[in-house]
Here is the input.
Amino acid sequence: MPHIGASVRIQGLKEEAEGLALVDTGSSFTVIDESLANAIGVELIDAEKVHVRGNCCTVEGELASIRRILVEGKMLGSTTAIVAGLSSEVRETLKKLGFRDDIIIGVRELAGFTLDVKEGKLKYVGALLI
Here is the structure.
């Protein structure tokens, strides 16, 4: 399956950042690197560390509140992300794939989107009410 990317704009308490981010359909939460969290300004929710296990590794971080996030131009409002120190290996891999090296989008941000694996991007189909 090709890598899926999404245009993202993330706004914190101080700044905002934007670019093309990897969409990780195996991750519930969006993960942002500590450097990005410090640059945009996030509010930590709890001092307790959380552990997220992925295919390649376990990431340890803290839950943080993000003021606003836009994915593919759609305002999703505030969200919770995991702030973690992404390894240099992960950051280099993201760069090589053409994505920002400091943010990975989780599925919680994908409501209303479908994956276009042929094009390697998200398509907005609208919110689904169940």
